[in-house]
UniProtKB/TrEMBL annotation:
InterPro entries, per the entry: PsdUridine_synth_cat_dom_sf, PsdUridine_synth_RsuA/RluA, RluA_PseudoU_synthase
Species of origin: Psophocarpus tetragonolobus
CDD domains (alphabetical): PseudoU_synth_RluA_like
One GO CC annotation: mitochondrion
Domain called Pseudouridine synthase RsuA/RluA-like: residue spans: 152-321
Homology family: Belongs to the pseudouridine synthase RluA family.
Keyword Mitochondrion listed: yes
Subcellular location per the Swiss-Prot or TrEMBL entry: Mitochondrion
Protein name (database record): Pseudouridine synthase RsuA/RluA-like domain-containing protein
Length: 433
């Protein structure tokens, strides 16, 4: 081959080959400078639960990107990890595909690798210390506890306090709970499910790793078997929210069953959940909600009881606003136009959160639970998780060696009820006068 080439051609080939090697080495250095590559996924993490309608079958859940990061990087604060996902700064590369962005709940296969920004790894190589709370703050948080046993901790979450940390979040409920709600345990309580920042009501946490895993599986199974639960009076998990809405649904009770998808707006700075008409055009997840009218007022407001059979982000807010045509009072993200037409309020911008409208600080952590009723110009979100019925997992775990042997159909139920915040109670009194 070389004998057929001129010296100039040979030089060009050698130059291109050397340039390729140089570029490959430089690309590798840039990759290492930009990303921290976590170990490849070796096996799926599974949690098994028995006892669903006396069927001795086990369900498994594959490892998600969030779980793999927490497992591989225990030194990273969970608030930082969730922030990276919200800012879409986490990547994944697999043997079959190129590098791509990954969400917290995306599942991983064996051999997949998760990539984190190098600057985050270097800057946050040490775990953050727990916050130092004042006696007033500790008393306030402990007063939120409405139930506690060996495995479960239940709080009445105040509106305006985020469940998890993130951008511009100083105090989050998981952070302060880890600082003052572990009681006699060495490990802090762990979140089992989520509530929106502006939403109030029952929040369930696990006190032990085993209890948390079992509670997680109950909430996951609730979503995965939602279709089978339609019309059933007795379910393994029951959640009932109270919401005050603008207007009234056409029917006094019914079922909302629609796919929901997420769209990114404001150049990636925020997102919205919306009804997906054609699931082939964008990814979506099915969401099912039962509703019934509790009471209607002469002012045009309606109190609804909402029972989500699935656990999707903003599910109740979107179903009320876009399907029932009755947006929740104080929900400016999905019901701003309806609030403007209502004409009773001096409205903020559509992107403002209702907790930002309360300026006067009366409680620890900058909270104010008195202001925000419909008698004021800026009503807050009127969505409250009032009741949850779930198995008593502490009883289930007493006589078994592991969570996989629990038969939840044989244990007693816990029926937990949380009072509405003062501003919602005031709206209730006004509309039911």
């Amino acid at each position: 081959m070389w004998t057929m080439m001129s010296m100039a051609a040979r030089g060009q080939v050698e130059a291109r080959w050397m340039f390729g090697r140089h570029m490959s080495a430089r690309a590798t250095r840039q990759w290492e400078e930009k990303w921290v590559t976590l170990p490849p996924v070796t096996a799926a993490a599974t949690v098994s639960v028995k006892g669903k309608e006396n069927l001795k079958t086990a369900s498994s859940t594959p490892t998600t990107a969030l779980k793999w990061i927490v497992r591989c990087c225990p030194q990273l604060p969970k608030t930082l990890v969730h922030k990276l996902f919200r800012l879409r700064q986490v990547r994944m590369v697999s043997p079959e595909t190129q590098i791509k962005k990954v969400a917290a709940k995306d599942t991983l296969n064996t051999g997949d690798r998760v990539l984190l920004p190098q600057s985050v790894h270097v800057k946050h190589s040490r775990p953050h210390p727990r916050p130092l709370l004042t006696p007033q703050q500790i008393h306030f948080i402990r007063a939120l506890v409405i139930y506690k046993d060996a495995s479960t901790l239940v709080l009445n979450k105040p509106p305006g306090m985020p469940v998890q940390g993130g951008v511009n979040v100083k105090w989050s409920l998981d952070l302060v709970a880890a600082a003052c709600l572990n009681y006699e345990y060495s490990e802090p309580p762990r979140l089992v499910h989520r509530l929106d920042r502006d939403c109030s009501g029952i929040l369930v946490m696990g006190r032990t790793q085993t209890g948390t895993g079992l509670l997680h599986s109950i909430f996951r199974e609730k979503t995965s078997t939602a279709v089978d639960d339609i019309g059933k009076e007795k379910r393994i998990l029951q959640r009932r929210y109270w919401a005050l809405v603008l207007g009234c649904p056409r029917r006094p009770k019914g079922l909302v069953s629609t796919p929901l998808g997420k769209v990114v707006v404001d150049n990636g700075r925020s997102d919205r959940i919306t009804i997906v008409d054609n699931s082939t055009l964008m990814s979506s997840k099915h969401a099912i909600t039962e509703y019934r009218v509790i009471a209607s007022s002469s002012q045009g407001y309606t109190w609804l009881e909402l029972s989500p059979l699935t656990g999707r982000k903003h599910q109740l807010r979107v179903h009320c606003a876009e399907v029932l045509g009755t947006p929740i009072v104080g929900d400016y993200k999905y019901g701003w136009q309806a609030h403007r037409k209502w004409g009773h309020f001096d409205l903020p911008n559509a992107d403002d959160s209702s907790e930002d409208l309360v300026d006067e600080e009366k409680l620890p952590f900058g909270l104010n639970l008195d202001k925000g009723s419909i008698t004021e110009n800026h009503p807050r979100l009127h969505l409250h998780c009032k009741q949850i019925v779930l198995p008593n997992i502490s009883q289930a775990l007493q006589n078994v060696e592991s969570a996989s042997n629990c038969d939840l159909s044989l244990v007693e139920e816990l029926e937990l009820v949380a009072d509405m915040p003062p501003y919602m109670q005031r709206s209730w009194d006004v509309t039911n006068y």
